[in-house]
Write a structure and sequence with these properties.
single chain; Arc Repressor Mutant, subunit A; D-Maltodextrin-Binding Protein, domain 2; 3 domains; 6-stranded mixed β-sheet; 3-stranded antiparallel β-sheet; about 35% helix
């Protein structure tokens, strides 16, 4: 099977639509159909079930997709690495971030650009309800996420930033006038429920299901973005812990932010796929490692 035919098969397995596959690969729809038919003739069985309504993988097609994916990704990464090595340090590092966190690593970005003037950094926002997909599928090279990240296919790299946390409550709430609160104050009060796209262990690092003494912290409305969190709190439907940088960048009518005095620091680390880094991305990680971590709002 030719490499291009493998690419067509894997793209169709992702898209499950001949038109979108052709558009994504910049080929004709007829070329996609011909390639799939040729593969099915060579193998001797159908790889896709087609109807007027949908395209789905057959069990054999799903097996072939899984078997081919790792090898194809390795080949593609190897070719890109060789090309980068031949050209030297050039190109763009794609960095995923949440909220305003990227602004706090401008020194890292500027230092990287200064060291490698033929390289650039492109920023893309990601959300806590789906923290890993973009880096996992190659849409970005690095993600800046809170620790811990315990995913078998991802690497947790250097910590760039640390910060404390605050509790978002609505105006007039009984905790709103406190100078600070404890995690024990979370007990028996309804908190946001992050969407299921985030691993529970990762959510637990920010919002535990129980206090240190074992009292439950009930979950309420499901949220998928930071702005939904503030909206739900202002509507008096729930509370939520947020990171200490939030008061610096955001204000929301009806929301009061109270420091939490007994939580561990949030540590923001770079995360990437375990199958390796392009030279320019490795250069960015090296610069970040050399500069080391710092507290939000303080000089490194």
């Amino acid at each position: 099977m030719e490499l291009r035919d493998i690419e067509i098969f894997l793209t169709l397995a992702d898209e499950l639509h001949f038109g979108r596959t052709a558009e994504r690969l910049h080929v004709s729809q007829a070329r996609v159909s011909q390639a799939i038919k040729a593969q099915e003739r060579r193998i001797g069985a159908a790889l896709f079930d087609r109807s007027s309504r949908a395209v789905t993988l057959t069990p054999l097609g799903a097996q072939l997709r899984d078997d081919l994916r790792t090898g194809y990704d390795a080949i593609r990464t190897g070719v890109v690495k060789a090309t980068e090595a031949a050209r030297g340090m050039t190109g763009t590092v794609r960095l995923g971030f949440m909220g305003s966190v990227a602004h706090e690593i401008r020194d890292v970005i500027d230092a990287f650009r200064g060291r490698y003037p033929d390289c650039d950094v492109a920023l893309r926002e990601i959300v806590f309800s789906d923290p890993f997909s973009a880096v996992r599928n190659g849409e970005i090279d690095l993600a800046l996420l809170w620790r811990p990240v315990r995913e078998p296919d991802l690497v947790e790299g250097p910590v760039l930033l640390t910060e404390g946390r605050v509790l978002a409550v609505w105006t007039g709430h009984e905790l709103a006038e406190r100078s600070s609160v404890s995690v024990e104050d979370f007990a028996d009060r309804v908190f946001v429920d992050p969407a299921q796209g985030s691993p529970r262990y990762w959510v637990e690092a920010m919002l535990p299901e129980r206090t240190p003494s074992g009292r439950p912290i009930p979950r309420g409305p499901v949220v998928t973005t930071f702005h939904e969190v503030l909206t739900m709190v202002a509507a008096r439907e729930c509370l939520s812990p947020v990171n200490e940088h939030v008061p610096r960048y955001y204000s929301h009518p009806g929301v009061v932010l109270v420091p939490v005095h007994d939580v561990p620091l949030t540590e923001w680390a770079l995360v990437w796929r375990e199958d390796g880094l392009l030279p320019r991305v490795r250069g960015f990680v090296d610069v970040a490692t050399e500069l080391g971590p710092r507290r939000f709002g303080r000089a490194r």
